[in-house]
Every structure is written in C-alpha cells, then in structure tokens.
Design goal:
alpha+beta; outer membrane lipoprotein receptor (LolB), chain A; 13-stranded antiparallel sheet; two-stranded antiparallel sheet
Length: 304
C-alpha cells in the first residue's frame, strides 16, 4: 500500500537523521536559496502545477485519534483555510468514560478566538506551562493571557504548515538544509522561516518531489483531566505544574496516502509525533478545493 510504503520510508528517514552523516549540509546563502526554490518548484509541479495557483480556499474533514498523556481522545476534525491569513479548526472530541467537547479555534487575520462547548460534564485544561502566581487557585489572569497567546501562536504556525505542505505557498525566507538519506531513498530538506514563528523543515521525496515530513520545535502541551462527577484537579497540583518551565520538544508531522482532488494531490493520512512519541493520527475522508468560504465565517460569533 502506498501510504504504508511512505510511512516506512519516513520512519527510516527519521532514524537516518539521527546519524551525523545522514544530512549533507550545503553552505552559501545564494546556493541554499536557489536550491530551495528549485525544490519548491519541483514540488509544486508534482502537487498540481498551475492548478495550485487557483486555490484560494481549502478544507479537510476526517477522523482523528490523539494521545493526551495516558488517555486516548478520538473524534472528528475539520480544518478550513482561506488564504492567506484565515483558518478555523473545529474538533468534536471525547474521552472514554469522560466528557465530550466541541472546540473551535480560529484566526481571522489579526484576530484570534476560541470557543469550547462541554456536552458531557467534566473538566479538561489545555496549556503549555509556565510560572504561576504563589497562592493562586489555578491560573491567574496573566497566566490565561499567556496561554491564549501560546494558543494563537500554535494556530498561526499550523496555518503556515498547511499552506506550505498542501499548497506550496509561502512568502517566508527559505534555505536548502541538505539531503537526507535512508535505505529506501533520499529526501531534500528545506527550512522555511515564517516571520515571528518557529522555523519548519520540510522533507521532499527526491523521486516524487512530494512532501513526506515536516518538523518543528514547540513547547510541550500539558493536560489535566477530571473524571465525570469527580473532584476538580488539586490547586496545589495545578500550581506545581504551572511552575515548571515549558519543555521544548520536536514535532514531526508525516504525510502519506496522496490522492488527487480537483487536479491537485493532497495527503489523506497525516500522523504526528511529539518528542519521539505518537501523538495524533488524522485520516482525511474529504478535501474540498475552493469551497464557498466567506471572510465573515472566520469572525467570532456575535461580531461583524
């Protein structure tokens, strides 16, 4: 199966990158920039060529499984993008023996917002860590604002990743890092540096020119849970967790099972690991190219 073959290649590629000789680094700004452009041009041709130019909006819907600590969450996720600066991610999620949620996060240009609907009772807290205030019963207003800024940054990074991986679209500086070698083949590695965001490295199969993997560094997300009907998390535990500095970990996002949709190739299987551990598997059942997305659809409800 093509997706399994791609996965084996990427796993071998990941192992190969651990060795110092796995990547041959090319130096010289002009050389690396020119080579990066060459790789991106080949990838655009492989993914759809001129058809990509006409893509103004795209959406993807499918089921996902995610590991949150020792718990597994499953549900359905929909990502809607209106280039260049709008994204909305809606997730229906549930925990075995626990509550169910609908969570929406969105960027409407410079505006970020989120909304969570709890349909089953219970408690779930998302965060990336950081210092808390002594004696506080949970996060302070300053903590909440920091968490909001972290969530906004994560979503802005996610938008840039999908624009690059799905549509080969970016205005950010690019450099050619080198060539990664594995038993099953080779990959060109291009680093993209969006303004104000963490750099990402994209691995392109040298044979097919399709994106195989994308890596980046980000703070490790922390979760706290409460069983339905159970007591809330201990305030001392919340303070202890918040006092720990956030740990930066490597995220690896892998793409496989490419299928043609309205003239462009799109990956219908995406798996993510965090710090070398499995985190999420998203199987897209439906892509829509140029769906009828209006700008006001990304604005928070109740705002014009």
């Amino acid at each position: 199966m093509h997706s399994m073959q791609s996965m084996r290649f990427v796993m071998a590629l990941t192992l190969a990158l651990a060795a110092p000789v796995a990547v041959v680094v090319h130096t010289g700004a002009a050389t690396t920039e020119d080579k990066a452009i060459e790789v991106i041009v080949a990838a655009r041709a492989a993914l759809g060529g001129p058809t990509l130019e006409g893509v103004k909006a795209i959406s993807a819907t499918g089921e996902y499984r995610r590991m949150m600590g020792e718990r597994e969450i499953d549900g359905e996720a929909t990502v809607e993008i209106l280039a260049p600066d709008k994204i909305r991610r809606t997730e229906e999620m549930g925990i075995s023996g626990g509550p169910t949620f609908t969570r929406t996060v969105a960027l409407n240009g410079a505006e970020y917002w989120e909304d969570t609907t709890n349909r089953g009772g219970g408690f779930m807290r998302f965060g990336s860590g950081g210092p808390g205030q002594p004696g506080a019963q949970g996060p302070s207003d300053a903590d909440r604002e920091r968490f909001r800024q972290m969530a906004e940054r994560r979503l802005r990074s996610e938008l840039q990743r999908y624009l690059v991986a799905w549509l080969m679209r970016t205005d950010a500086p690019m450099t050619y890092v080198g060539e990664a070698e594995a038993e099953d083949g080779k990959a060109d590695v291009v680093e993209v540096q969006p303004e104000g965001l963490t750099p990402m490295r994209v691995f392109f199969d040298e044979r097919t020119h399709l994106p195989l993997m994308l890596t980046y560094e980000a703070p490790e997300m922390r979760m706290m849970f409460r069983q339905r009907g159970g007591p809330p998390p201990d305030p001392e535990e919340i303070r202890r967790r918040m006092a720990e500095p956030p740990k930066m970990v490597t995220h690896e996002l892998r793409f496989s099972d490419y299928k043609e949709v309205d003239g462009i190739l799109l990956p219908h299987q995406m798996t993510q690991s965090v710090g070398g551990k499995p985190f999420e598997e998203w199987t897209v059942s439906e892509f829509k190219v140029n769906p009828n997305l209006k700008s006001d659809a990304f604005a928070k409800k109740g705002k014009s």
